[in-house]
Amino acid sequence: MLEEFKKFAMRGNVVDLAVGVIIGAAFGAIVSSLVADIIMPVIGAVTGGLDFSNYFIALSKSVTATVLADARKQGAVLAWGNFATILINFLIIAFVLFLIIRGLNALIKQEAEKPAKPAEAPRQEVLLQEIRDILAKKPA
Length: 140
Fold this sequence. Notes:
This protein is an all-alpha fold and 140 residues long. Helices cover 71% and strands 3% of the residues.
């Protein structure tokens, strides 16, 4: 059973999937930083200092805080600003993946459209053609 699991785990597809998940997680962290540290501050500056991460709707009358972390401690809140930030993360990741897949598809299509090299004749046929040409040049 251990040997069978080893064969399964070392197959190319499983290893490729593991590498993809690790790279995807790293890419997700990069995009999260891009949104949180670059895009959202720019949006905040353009809109007059809005900070989406602290936008929420209190679902309980006991919530009086103005900061999301404190409000969550006081009761139920609908953190729509946090959701908006995560939605922007997703849209950026989806768009980048779209561009990557589109580029890969273009490369694959380009490779498929290349004309194939004509197959070389087997060595025996080449020799027979040479003999035929020599015999054709001989005077009758």
